[in-house]
Structures are given as structure tokens and as C-alpha cells.
Hints:
Layout: H1 2-25, H2 43-64
Helix pairs in contact: 1-2
Amino acid sequence: MGNTLLTITGFGLFLIGFIALVLSLVGLNLALLNFTNSWPGVWSFALKLTLMFGGIALFYINRTKDTGKKNG
């Protein structure tokens, strides 16, 4: 059950970051991350990228981690 939860969490983080990034490119804002619009400089953009890459990393690491079985 833990693997499934981490996979869903990673995919959710990626999806939220991706949707927020695409919406900000067309001039809209995701209400969930609306508080980041008041941050100076590029910090809001960096948070969205971090969500995307962190979600991908969590998803990838969770799906490829060793299950404890030895081959041979």
C-alpha cells in the first residue's frame, strides 16, 4: 500500500506543478498556489518547477526501487 501512495503522491505533485506552470504561462493562476504570486522575482516559478521535478523524482524512485529480491 505504501508504494501506491507514494506513486500517487509523486504524480499529484507533478500534475499540480505542471498545471500551475502552464496556467501561469497563459496569464492564469491556480488557486492552490495563489499565495506564491506575491513572492518577488522568480521564486514562484522555481516552486512550480520544484513541484514538477520533485514529483517526477518521487514517482521514478518509488517505481524503480529494489524490492529486496535477488536475481541468481
